[in-house]
Specification:
The chain has two domains: about 120 residues, Chitinase A, domain 3; about 150 residues, Alpha Horseshoe (Serine Threonine Protein Phosphatase 5, Tetratricopeptide repeat). It is α+β, with helices and mostly antiparallel strands. The longest helix is centred in the last third of the chain and has 28 residues. β3 and β4 form a beta hairpin. About 50% of the residues lie in helices and about 15% in strands. The N terminus and C terminus are likely disordered. Strands 1, 2, 3, 4, 5, 6 and 7 form a seven-stranded antiparallel β-sheet that branches. α8 packs parallel to α10 and α11 runs antiparallel to α13. Keywords: Isomerase, Repeat, Rotamase, TPR repeat. InterPro entries: FKBP6/shu, PPIase_dom_sf, PPIase_FKBP_dom, TPR-like_helical_dom_sf.
Amino acid sequence: MSQGYYPNKGVPIKDGIDLSNLLSGVEFTLDVPGNNLQDEVDDTIQFDNFLDEVLSEDETRQYGMFEEIREKMVDLTDDGKLKKYIVREGTGPNPGDVPVFVHYIAYIENNKTPFDSTYGRLKKPEKIKLGVGAVYEGFEMAVKSMKKDEISLFLIHPDLAFKSMGVPPRIPKNATLFLEIELVEIGKIVEEKIDDGLQIKDKRSFSEVYNQVKALLVQSRMDFSINNIINIISNYRKAERLLSSCRLMNDTEEAKWKKLLFKVYLNLCVCYNHEKYNKPKLVCVTAREALQTVPEFAEKSDKLFYQFGKAKFALHSLSDALGCFKKAAKLRGVEDAEIKRQIDLVLLKMEEEQNGEELDKHIGFSPSRTEK
């Protein structure tokens, strides 16, 4: 992360707050260096300034309060207890049960002062082992949703954090947490618990993962015949996790990996758009991941842009939807009745909105309204 990303780095904490200590629930106090506490407090990250730095100029005007950020986030869990907003896209696969290096700033929701920050405590990224219970559940789920070099904002429900106990005095009971996380680096090994302790193993080979993924895809086709959307999505998510954590040995394996991963992304988009699930924000997230991770397939797929367009239309992003449908039509190469119907629907909606705005403008300046 560049030095200019944050206007300041928060209060430097002499002894720091370790995530494992937070997880244990032990009470603690903060020892801030320096003789003048007020001087240090003035250097604390202020949330409004923080948002001005991490969000684009256009998006900054739409933010400023936690509830406004929440509206922009997508749900990572079906119950909405973990929400995410991507500030800077990353690259590559998501981490599995591997060591990772992260920078983060942690807040209680609606509190402008962070209760923990790697910038103030460590001055460098923190190494965290995923998959061994080293951090609370929501933090691990958040990191596992990220890619290398990604920066994202997360809202974590207390059920996935410190629950009804909290960590007095800094974290009250039933506290919703707001985190900004940067995934700096992903380790190359996984750690698995076995009977006689902890064993370090290499990532699973693609040949091992390939057959499992193919079996999941076959099962998904069977579930699709009976409209079991929840099972299908679960299978595709498992397939995505398997592919994201495997080891590729050569160009041939990489080519197969990309083709299979794109198929998983595309089918997830179809399922997320299904009327029984209807999660257009997840379609957008998945489509963007496909375009970034496997552009060789994604950028040439009329089916992906068609699903992307449906999601954008559902989210009322009409110009984006129109662009996606036109891209799908161009990639299809021949006239497609369904794509044409979607384009006509978008154009009709845009015309209706334009007429409505003109009518509102006319009414707003009418003599009768002025007299009132």
